[in-house]
Model the fold of this input.
Amino acid sequence: MKHEIPVEELGVRGPLMADPIASCVHCGFCLPSCPTYVTMGEEMDSPRGRIFLMKEVLEGKLEVELAQPYLDNCLGCQACETACPSGVRYGDLITEFRARAEVGRKRPRAQRLRRELALRTLPDARRFRAAAKSGALARKVRGAVPKALRPMVDLLPERLPAARPLPPSFPAQGERRARVALLAGCVQQALDPEIGWAAGRVLARNGVEVIVPAGQGCCGSLAMHAGDAAGARKLARRNLGAFPADVDAVITTAAGCGSGMREYGSLFLGESEEAAATALAGRTRDVAEFLADLGLAAAPPALAHPRRVAYQDACHLAHAQQVTAAPRRLLTAIEGLELLEPAEAELCCGSAGIYNVERPAVAAELGERKARNLLATGAELIASGNIGCLTQLQRQLANLDHPIPTLHTIEVLDRAYSQTL
Done:
């Protein structure tokens, strides 16, 4: 039976699909910035190619099954939006299309199993910790890992840092300049809990009171960008009730989370929670963006030893949120730090949510390419603003036998303040 997308009545969500399709003039400016077009060289693996495919499917001229492989190849990095002179909102289009295409989609059993496990495990730090321990044990027993799960198990770290839950608050030091709520994150709490602590310390040092709402959970971004709109809304509803309105901002430390929360208005379009979701989206800011706009109360002390640091733009910070200058301003405020820029900075590192689980070969190719470009700068340390990017880079640098440190931007600033960089 042919899989059909119900598009007879697009309803209130129609503009999320129709407007980007109508805006695209197929100029090709997006091609050099698209990681799959650059690596695969196929027109249908480019943004304008995918827009054409989605248009044909929506108009009933093409079966969705024929378009799906090319659409699945898309990382959703939104680099094409940055390059587009017509302002095409490709991210809205691909997210909404995937949500519609996922309804009734028949996936192979192995693919379905990997996807379900990823979407159920990654948003919960406790489940992820249990999965990581199980994966580490399974790797030691030959044949213990089913073929279908090897891509996922191979990505699990050998060990995780000790659990370190964030405190309820970080009191502002000195005169209070702002009051914010911090998203703790999900998998980040398991992979690198120090990022959240660094954010709290640096913000507090700069006169910002930080509260960590107890009722919060996963932001839903992984599910949203994978086409599971219902799952994303279920997770996001928890945050709608958890984050207070009487704060200057809701702070995120992961680019993917910040991007997802800024899309809450679209996620709940036409739903009863639309107004609350739009308001929360409007209050959401990346930690680097917020702190750079607020201004440092005092610059960190000069480094005892100069450091060469390469900055890697996380796609959902640079392209989805258009935040590029703020992290660089914070890093260059550290006297003795030389900031380096890699070639092909616009290309995705290949992490992209659960993409490295569903498309491990493509993700690895992009990750190695990114790692080589960063190493070519001669950097001693790499900074970025997303846990997925940092984890991907750590793995690829180790594969290249150059395991140089990778830190979140806010961790670099925190270490500079404490003179441990």
Q: What stands out?
A: Residues 299-417 form a domain with the Rossmann fold fold (CATH 3.40.50.1860). Strands lie at 169-170, 178-182, 208-211, 249-252, 284-286, 307-311, 337-340, 381-384, 406-408. The mean pLDDT is 92.
